[in-house]
Amino acid sequence: MVTTVKPKLTLENFLQQPEIKPASEFIDSRITQKPMPQGQHSVIQSELVSIINQTAKSDKIAYAFPELRCNFESRSIVLDVVVLQWDRIPLTDTGKIANRINIYPDGCIEILSPEQSLTQVLDKLLFCSQIGTQLGWLINPEEEAIFAILPEQKLRLFKNDDTLPVLEKVNLKLTVNEVFNWLKF
């Protein structure tokens, strides 16, 4: 009997595969698919992108992107919200944003879906922090709580009227209650 050995998938091989919905990620040489966003997830994501861009875009401080694929350190991850400082946004020769984002984010936000593993999502945020991401948020709509991953991988829990930490120079004051009040229609 002949045994065929499959070559190990690389990041470059992964990036050549067609995109699927919901997005797949490449972590530790394995492909995993993100869960399909649902109502609460979509509302929080949309509001965060909007409020961050209203605050930081006009002064060219930072820009928030929904569901942006970032490739770095042999991983390809799709975070719910990626925040890049203005001077780190990769551009083409013509000044347009590059399609491939091959850098770690300055800020990243993940919104926990009911079927997602807390450990896997937290691992992704902590990995970003190890590489250089300045701030991460893990939003848990079910428990109305937000974990922040601060510099040096310090983890802090925010609830109720706690004001959330933001990237330096981003003039945004936002409490946990304000985030979860977006869910009330």
Structural class call reads alpha+beta
- Based on the coordinates given, report the CATH architecture: Alpha-Beta Complex
What is the 3D shape?
globular
Uncertain runs are: none
Q: From the alpha-carbon coordinates, what is the Rg to the nearest angstrom?
A: 17 Å
Strand content: 25-35%
Write down the domain tally. 1
Under CATH, the topology can be stated as tt1808, chain A
Q: Supply the CATH superfamily name.
A: tt1808, chain A
How helical, in percent, are the residues?
Answer: 10-25%
Distance between the termini: 63 Å
Spatial arrangement of strands, main beta sheet: 3-4-5-6-7-8
N-to-C series of helices and strands = HEEHEEEHEEEH
The biggest sheet, with number of strands, parallel, antiparallel or mixed sense and barrel status, is: 6 strands, mixed
The count of β-strands is: 8
Report the average pLDDT across residues.
94
Q: Number of helix segments?
A: 4
